[in-house]
Every structure is written in C-alpha cells, then in structure tokens.
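Z., the sequence and structure:
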Amino acid sequence: MAKIKKYIISIDAGGSSVRALLFDFQGKVVGREQTRTEVISTEAGAVEHDPEELWQQFLAAINNLLKKCNVDPFEVASIGISVQRSTFTLWDRSGKTCCNFVSWSDIRAAELTAEINKNIKWNLVKLGAVIVSTFTRGAMLTATGMLKFITDHALPRLLWLFKIRPDVYEKAKKGDLLFGTLDTWFIYKLTGGKIHATDTSNAASTSLYNHFDLKWNSIFCNLFKIPMGIFPVVK
C-alpha cells in the first residue's frame, strides 16, 4: 500500500553547512537537522568546496532528519533546495567533477574581472546596447549597458578557470562537460544523472542568463567564447 504524502523537506546549502527542515502540510516545522561542510582555501582569495563532500552532507542532513522524526522517505512529497547562488563546478557526463566548486566569494578572478570590464569589445557591446535601448526601451539592452562584472558573477570566475585549466576548456568546447550551480549538482545526483537543470533565479545569478527572454545569453557566450552546450536546462 502506497504511503500517504505528509511532509515537505526544505534544504538550505550554504557556505559552511547544509540545513534541512521538515514541514507538514500545514506549514508547521516538524524537525530540523544540520551538517557541517568544509571550506577549502589553498591560496589567497580561494574559496572552494568539495562536490562529493557537499553531496554526502546533503544526504546526511536528509537521512538524519527523517530518522530523528521517524518519517518514512515515501511520506515526503517534495524537496525544496535553496543554495548559495553563483557557486559552480563542472563535471563530465559520467558524473565525475573536474574541479571543486568555485564559491561566489572566491576572488582569484579579480584581476581578470577588471580586464573584462576594460575590454574594448565588451565596452562596444555596452555602448551599442545603450544607444539602441534609447530608442527601443528594451529592458535587456538597458541592463547590458549598465552591467559591470564583479567576482560574485560566475562569468569571470568561469573564464578564470578556463584560463588556468586549458584542459577543462578543451573538454567544454568538445561538449564533454556540464556546468552547474549547487542546486544543479544536487538534482543531477538525486536523479542518477538523468536531469541537468536549474531554475531561473540560480541561472540569472551567473550573469550568463538572459532573464528577460528566459534563455542563456548567446551574445555574452559568443563574445567571451563560452560553449553554450555546458549549461543546464532552466525550468
């Protein structure tokens, strides 16, 4: 006999822990659990996380929560996942990662970010966007004309990673790698590699997603030579 769905799990995966809360359908908190995660800093400005450790702590938080509350997994209707946005990694199609998660707070791409903001082609794109938006009032063009990249954005950190790891860039160009923020990684692992997806809010935080037209930004990707095939489906 099928179990009656009674609960919802909410996950908050941050920089130092994974927190899990169990709610009933009336919104009451039934239980909570927290597991710690390690921050890896191998050099000045580096903030990384081990993808496999995060996955194991994600599972531990859920399993410990269900055990503590004496709840059968089949009684859980759904899981909501909130994560530190713009933290990303890449993995091949067998699920093997090629680097740690590069955190949104990692500042090793600071010098490259400054170079990008001074790049002639990028500034011509911005100028063109400003001129055209004056006549069209297009929201995306207006936003592009105002955009200044910072290290919080995934774009400069991804370009930095490609620069120091040309092997990773070559694999990405061949279509052998998948890009993902924390939510994408958890979904990929939960579904046994069947689903490579994210949501609009996480996609938009990368600065590589056109959240006005709801699609990955082909202009940015072409300008900075980022293979679009690495990105997840946005749902």
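The domain at 86-235 is CATH 3.30.420.40 (Nucleotidyltransferase; domain 5). The first strand starts at residue 7 and ends at 13.

Let me know what you think.
H.
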